[in-house]
Amino acid sequence: MEIFYYFYNMSTIIIKTDKQSSKILSELAKRLGGNVIDLKDDQFEDFMLGNLMDKIKTDKTVSRESVLKKLRS
Question: What range defines the domain where residue 45 resides?
Answer without folding.
Answer: 2-72
